Description:
The protein is α/β, with parallel strands linked by helices. It contains six helices and nine strands; from the N terminus they run H-E-E-E-H-E-H-E-E-E-H-E-H-E-H. It has a nine-stranded mixed β-sheet with strand order 3-1-2-4-5-6-7-8-9.
Amino acid sequence: METTLGKVSLKISEIFLSLQGESSRVGLPTVFVRLTGCPLRCVWCDTAYAFSGGQLMSLAAIVDQVAGHGVRHVCVTGGEPLAQPACLPLLSALADAGYAVSLETSGALDIGKVDARVARVVDLKAPGSGESSRNRWQNLALLTANDELKFVLKDRADYEWARQLIDDRQLATLCPLLFSPVDGELPAATLAEWVVADRLPVRFQLQLHKVLWGKLRGK
């Protein structure tokens, strides 16, 4: 294993300790491993700085840096982490090391080879993102109760799209569902009122890190 960890490397944008801002793990101290690169260009993307740059790091160096933060939860994110093939051995290495690992992915790439111990948070792209044509619908059949589907919604049209999709594909039977407003585009209270009015089987969420620290990077 040590030999493997030393030979495999990834382009890393940043590694930092913060509170998980989204998903069912919200509020938990978490180490974030942000991989460089993304094939999508969502119009509301808030991590465009991760499209390029970063530094090449071995799996061993990444795992060592994660260990230095001393917490149990690790989130591998991006960009789009699965755009780097070595993301898969990274996820397994973190799970092997005993961490509770989650993966934040756009859902545009195949999630089928992700280690079963990893919780996959799949972001289905609504029309307002400009990237809904990239959704890989085959991923839905791979979801388990350990995973989560996230919808980031820009306006009422996005909301209606997501609501219809939940009904048509019975998504609530697959895994927990998450609804978030696009920061600065859709008022949070408005989305919350729609969810309550329609009694949707979803978890409404805000990005806790932005509530606490605004758009400060590494938080």
